[in-house]
């Protein structure tokens, strides 16, 4: 796998990456509503466990520039039941200071290429509708809005955010 897009190298995540990935998400989570988690809920041990869980499928990726991790993404299992084995949930983070540089596109294209090879026909994600850059990225990469869950996320100050569900189908698998 180790593909390169411009100056961005994509590779499988390693357990040794867990603390870097966790710290990057903690930084982003400090802005209310960017991630669903709050910083103190994000633990390096959980990142390491997720990397181990997804290692065989090869669906936990990091993007590097000059040896520095600048983004990460993975396709998580939605369920263990057989009727949902073709579905994965996308989690993607472009690390602070690296937005708008093609990192998200590179990670997403790599995961979309891997998906059909491992039997994934449908990728789901959730994004805040006001995160226009992310919505535009997902749309550009073939995702479509499926629904919006109103007032799904409740922030610490008592305000609510909507959450948009988007979906991508592997080639030949769209309804």
Explain what this protein looks like in three dimensions.
This protein is an alpha+beta fold and 175 residues long. 27% of the residues lie in helices and 34% in strands. It has helices spanning 18-29, 44-54, 103-117, 132-140, and strands at residues 3-5, 8-12, 60-65, 68-77, 87-94, 122-127, 144-154, 160-169. It has an eight-stranded mixed beta sheet with strand order 1-2-3-4-5-6-8-7, sandwiched between helices.
Task: List strands and helices in order, with pairings.
Elements: E1 3-5, E2 8-12, H1 18-29, H2 44-54, E3 60-65, E4 68-77, E5 87-94, H3 103-117, E6 122-127, H4 132-140, E7 144-154, E8 160-169
Parallel strand pairs: 5-6
Antiparallel strand pairs: 1-2, 2-3, 3-4, 4-5, 6-8, 7-8
Question: How many independent structural domains?
Answer: 1
- Main sheet: which strands, in order across? 1-2-3-4-5-6-8-7
**What average pLDDT do the residues reach?**
95
Structural class: alpha+beta
Q: Please, what is the CATH homologous superfamily?
A: Gcn5-related N-acetyltransferase (GNAT)
Spell out the helices and strands N to C. Answer: EEHHEEEHEHEE
How many helix segments? 4
């Amino acid at each position: 796998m180790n593909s390169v897009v411009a100056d961005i190298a994509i590779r499988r995540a390693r357990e040794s990456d867990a603390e870097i990935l966790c710290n990057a998400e903690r930084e982003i989570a400090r802005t209310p509503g960017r991630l669903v988690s709050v910083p103190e809920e994000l633990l390096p041990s959980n990142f390491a466990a997720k990397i181990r869980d997804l290692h065989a499928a090869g669906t936990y990726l990091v993007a590097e520039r000059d040896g520095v991790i600048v983004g990460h993404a993975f396709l998580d299992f939605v369920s263990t039941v057989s009727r949902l084995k073709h579905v994965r949930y996308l989690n993607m983070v472009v690390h602070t200071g690296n937005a708008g540089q093609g990192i998200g596109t590179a990670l997403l294209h790599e995961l979309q290429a891997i998906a059909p090879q491992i039997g994934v026909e449908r990728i789901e994600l959730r994004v805040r509708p006001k995160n226009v850059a992310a919505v535009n990225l997902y749309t550009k990469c073939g995702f479509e809005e499926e629904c919006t869950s109103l007032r799904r996320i409740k922030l610490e100050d008592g305000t609510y955010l909507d959450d948009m569900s988007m979906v991508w189908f592997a080639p030949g698998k769209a309804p």
